[in-house]
Amino acid sequence: MNDTHTTRRDEIAAGLAEVERRIADACEAAGRARGEVTLVAISKTYPASDVRILAALGVRDVGENRDQEAAPKAADCADLSLTWHFVGQLQTNKARSVVSYADVIHSVDRERLAGALSREAVRAGRRLTCLVQVALGDEPGRGGVAPEGLAPLADAIAGAEGLVLGGVMAVAPLGADPAPAFARLRDLSEALRADHPGATVVSAGMSGDLAEAIAHGATHVRVGTALLGRRKPFVR
Questions:
Q1: pLDDT tens per residue, range 57-91
Q2: All domains of the chain, ordered by start, with CATH?
Q3: Which end of the chain is less crowded, N or C, counting CB atoms within 10 A of the terminal residue's CB?
Q4: pLDDT tens digits, residue range 114-163?
Q5: Do 196 and 168 contact (CB within 8 A), yes or no?
Q6: Cα–Cα–Cα angle for 104, 105, 109, nearest 5°?
Q7: What pTM, to 2 d.p., does this model score?
Q8: 40 contacts 223 by C-beta, under 8 angstroms
Q9: How far apart are CA 137 and CA 117, in angstroms?
Q10: Whole-angstrom distance, CA of residue 150 vs CA of residue 147
Q11: Interhelix angle for 67-76 vs 48-56, to 10°?
Q12: Separation of CA 185 from chain center
């Protein structure tokens, strides 16, 4: 057996065990069942071999944030039974490629993008779950629709052929206590469900703030660094 591969598997298994412990502890503290929270393993900058190790360890949800990396990785892992999540900012000209492999898109923040995804989903004969990314801080580079724009964008997704409105997603503002932002997202999610009862997904929380997200109702946490290690900078 290849020693390097064995070592990497051990590293990932240890990271996964620690993340699972943190999620379980956060669920217990919040009075929630562990089964209410889905771990989405963010594999950006890491190879398809790491995704295979995660799958062998029981992880079924994998996330990526750049189409040029995600598309070949998803193709490499097409034989695995995985749900692929696209979590990054998405340009409309990438819609066709992303629709070819992604099952859930977390970062829909404008009607034009929803329209492009709808057209490509219909063309490909697919039904795609879309989350509305909500901006909870003054960081335009991170994307997201303003909270007051959530309802009309959600209505547009719900009415678009080939798309399913899954719920909401947000990233906590940098350098601030994440709890108020996640509490705001929970309130927005509850308001959305009054009109769209099936939109139950709340995608919030990453390696550093997953406990706060779970305390405020997150159903999906997006974890990369704590699972796979500190990333190397992406080089174009």
A1: 999 999 999 999 999 999 999 999 999 999 999 99
A2: 3-227 (3.20.20.10)
A3: C
A4: 999 999 999 999 999 999 999 998 776 788 999 999 999 999 999 999 99
A5: no
A6: 150
A7: 0.94
A8: yes
A9: 26
A10: 5
A11: 50
A12: 15
